[in-house]
Amino acid sequence: MSKLVIVESPAKARTIGRILGPEYQVTASMGHVRDLPERELGVDLEHDFAPKYIDTPRSSSVLKGLRSAAKQADEIYLAPDPDREGEAIAWHLHEVLKGVTKVPFHRVTFHEITRSAIENAMKQRGSINQNLVDAQQARRVLDRIVGYQVSPLLWRKLEKGSSAGRVQSVALRLVVEREREIMGFVPEEYWNFVAKFSGLSGDVFQAELAKIDGKKFRIPDAAGAQALETSVRNGGTPRIASVERQQRRRTPPPPFTTSTLQQAANSFLHYTASSTMTCAQQLYEGIDLGKSGAVGLITYMRTDSVNIALEAQQAAAAFIRANYGEKFAPAQFNRYRSKAGAQEAHEAIRPTDVNRTPDSLAAVLTPVQLKLYTLIWKRFVASQMTPALYDQTGVDVEIKGADSRDFTFHAVASVLVFPGYAKVYREAETDENAAAAAQALGKLHEGENARLQELVKEQKFTEPPPRYTEATLVKALEENGIGRPSTYATILRTIQDRDYVKRQQNKLFPTELGFQVNDFLTGKLPKLFDVGFTADMEEELDHVEEGKLSWVNMMREFYGKFAPWLKEAKEGDAPPPELVKPVLALADGLEFAPARKVGRRSYDDAKFFRSIRDKFAKDGKISAKQMAGLIALAARYAEKISADRINALDPETKQAFEDAAAARKADAVQTEAAGDAPGMPPELSAVFEAFKDVEFEAPVTRGRITYDDRKFWNSLRTQAESGRKLSDKQLAALGRMVKKYRVPCSDPGALPAAMGMAAVPASAGGTAASGPAIPVEELSAWIAGLKQVKEWAAPSGKGRFTFDDKKFFQSLAKQFGEGKTLSPKQVAALKKLADKYGVK
After folding, report:
1. Burial of residue 250, with CB atoms counted within 10 A of its CB: 0-12 exposed, 13-18 middle, 19 or more buried
2. 387 touches 420 (CB < 8 A)
3. Which of 119-133, 241-255, 568-582 has the lowest average pLDDT?
4. What residues are paired with 35 via a beta bridge?
5. Do residues 765 and 774 make contact, with C-beta atoms less than 8 angstroms apart?
6. Catalytic residue at 300?
7. What is the average per-residue pLDDT within 245-263?
8. CB 142 within 8 A of CB 168
């Protein structure tokens, strides 16, 4: 008999094939074989959201081979990964292959790829879990509807290629809101006090001021700090008010889930979520160990469960006793509680064989694989060990101040007396001075007097919340119920690939585009991209998976809310009908110019006017963009429109019309002065000439969009040479290319200024959020003036930071001199320096 086993990847197929032997043909589907079409919605909104599946572009040859193999098989085992996505792949394979064969299909899942696990899985074969399939299908349809129906709104307002995602946009919102917290943070001053005391033994110990008159306190300024210092120094004799000794237990952390693995790998190894999952996939699917063949080294890596199989716990206990001693193995196995909604049928991420120590695999793993395997192995072994024990001593020292206030200083020290799990896995470095501190505190007795040896006051400032790292963002997503183990890495990769977020020194910064996309989406569709609503949708998907909710009913409920939200977002900026009618009257009855073609585009004023007029007659409304186009059209014929019609406009619309007409007249005068010959203004010609020796970067593809700097630059030059004016967006894009390629120029601000780009960030360092841009000339004047400063203030330290005016100015001057943008904060700091040193 021939048995066909279908898995997802070739690596997994090779490993499993060697284990099952020649009786089985093990082949790979290469992931999904069917999906929604790329160029259309692919969801029938009128008929229960029925998805329209088509073969994926890369699956045609794969399906051909699978159909051929299926015809020859007596049994077919569908063995994609054990999660929603894998279940959906298994269902699609069944749908595709059931038409070519009548043999039985079986669903098998491999939570680890070892001989015993695979043999057991083949014996426990089952059928496809339709609830899991429905949950995956619901997520796919949900994401498709949001992406395809919301993204066009972004294209109209921002730029083509921008995209909205149901979950990715909420992740972006978290990053943007955190950045705004940081930008708006106002530091507050406070003071800390640390004293050194000695007891009767003579040993010196350190304590921090903890309470004043038995209460927590805050000293907000230098005057208060000086008064407190004086009171303590001139106060009574310090007295040991209490000595508390106790033993503390620190329990081991649970084994890894997907999110905690991504967090730990990012924190300790600086791996991104995507690289962590790629490496974990390799360890799961199998590594060739030489004589013993290929074997999976870890269990399935997409899980939110902390459960451990009994056999694995028994093996770990035996390993711990043999290698560390009886005291390190608990009398009963450690058990951990998974978060609500976790898939308890799954296990946590662990090594498939605890006896395969990292050292034993060093020769067969890459450095990246070895570091991740070591992290997983240590965390698992530690999770099965006894707690670490610490002897902790806490001491309170009281002083009656000269101003009659009671000051309480507190000291605490912990010493590790039994390492337990910390023998294998430590999450923080050990304090090397802890033993000496504990020894000094251990000699103190309640009621004895002490001597104040030293009192140090330290000025501090409150700090803003830290920027997200990939680790902390994954943690925030999980805590807020957004996404699931299989989606965290994709979410983080998407917001970075879309250029909404940049990762610098392991910190996540929203880009200007990221700010714009977030502000637009949360402004237009606040309920859709609300953190709570997104979490509720995830919970409903879980209910579909559990069989508690029909996926169609879930979609009906969602779309019943979504459709009105989307309609409101599309029409929210529509001008009132009473404002539209007078504008339509401006152009009504005009004799429009003949249709004309410029490049590949055709312009037909009459046709455009009729389309707007007819739409308004049919729907009773037009969009704000259409209103602006209508005003611009009328402005082209301003001299033919009567004053009565113009005066019938409301004041704001009238001003927009007159501004457009004046701008058009100015363009006409400029064109007449330049003559009839086509060509670009000499200033703009100089800009393009400056690019003559530039080597452009190779084209880059992000999603479905290819960015080709050379092709884009050539299109701008062709347009300019034909005499057609570049738009503000095109000028801004050209300005960014000037910065990006550091086009040679004696004055970094000259090129943007010559192009009339006063609003381009490169020339100003301002944004809509930070206020008006500073002219290039003013920045240049500040820098030139500061270069003349002969005596700079001496560097000063505040906490961990050293402030050096001279070095800071030199870094800003260098950045500006290279034509790079100064951020709003840098511009503000430069202005402060100019004011400080009297530069005008």
Report:
1. middle
2. yes
3. 568-582
4. 54
5. yes
6. yes
7. 95
8. no
CB atoms within 10 A of CB 665: 13
Count helices and strands in the chain by DSSP H and E runs: 31, 24
Q: How far is CA 705 from CA 37, 160, 386, 657, 817, in A?
A: 17, 9, 54, 36, 33
Three-class secondary structure of residue 390 per DSSP:
strand
The region that residue 202 occupies, defined by phi over 0 for left and psi between -120 and 50 for alpha, beta otherwise, is left
Residue type, 361: L
Eight-state DSSP code of residue 449: B
Q: Which of 300, 421, 488, 741 is catalytic?
A: 300
Distance of alpha carbon 530 from alpha carbon 612, whole angstroms: 35
CA distances from 380 to 257, 325, 327, 336, 376 (A): 11, 17, 18, 12, 6
Residue 803, classed as helix, strand or coil, is strand
Q: Give 91's contacts (C-beta < 8 A, 6+ positions apart).
A: 128, 130, 133
> What would the two tokens of residue 728 be?
């503000």
User: Token pair for residue 601?
Assistant: 């585009």
Asked whether the beta carbons of 690 and 752 are under 8 A apart, the reply is: no
Which residue(s) pair with 107 in the sheet?
Answer: 78, 126
Report the distance separating Cα 15 and Cα 28, nearest Å. 12
Q: Which residue, 104, 88, 97, 183, is CA-closest to 140?
A: 88
Alpha-carbon distance of 394 to 411, in angstroms, equals 6
Cα three-residue angle 616-618-624, rounded to 5 degrees: 30
CB 769 within 8 A of CB 514: no
- The neighbouring-strand residues paired with 298 are 351
pLDDT of residue 776: 63
pLDDT bucket at 758, cuts 50 / 70 / 90: very low
Paired with 294 in beta bridges are 288
SS (H, E, C) 233-281: HCCCCCEEEEEEEEEEEECCCCCECHHHHHHHHHHHHCCCHHHHHHHHH
Residues 494-502 have a mean pLDDT of 94
Q: To the nearest whole percent, how much of the chain has pLDDT over 70?
A: 89
Give yes or no for residue 598 having a pLDDT over 80. Answer: no
Whether this model's pTM surpasses 0.70: yes
Nearest to 441 by CA among 197, 237, 166, 103: 197
Neighbours of 87 (CB within 10 A): 25
Residue corresponding to tokens 């998907």? 541
Q: What is the spatial distance between Cα 496 and Cα 490, in angstroms, rounded to a whole number?
A: 10
Letter string b/e over residues 454-476, b meaning 16 or more CB atoms within 10 A of that residue's CB: ebebeeeeeeeeebbbbbbbbbb
**Strand pairing of 34-35 and 54-55?**
antiparallel
Antiparallel, parallel or unpaired: β 801-803 and 796-798: antiparallel
Phi, psi at residue 29, to the nearest 5°?
A: -90, -10
Q: What angle do CA 205, 211, 217 make, to 5 degrees?
A: 130
Buried b (16+ CB within 10 A) or exposed e, 723-760: eeebeeebbbbbbebbbebebebeebbbbbbbbebebb
- State residue 503 phi and psi, 5-degree precision: -105, 115
State the Cα–Cα distance between residues 83 and 484, nearest whole angstrom.
11
Mention every residue, 6+ apart, whose C-beta is less than 8 A from residue 123: none
Query: DSSP string covering 526-577, please?
Result: TTTT-HHHHHHHHHHHHHHHTTSS-HHHHHHHHHHHHHHHHHHHHHTTPPPH
Find out whether 745 and 819 touch, Cβ atoms under 8 Å: yes
Whole-angstrom Cα distance, residue 571 to residue 109? 49
Residues recorded for the chain: 840
List residues bridging with 28 in a β-sheet: 7
CA distance 642 to 627: 20
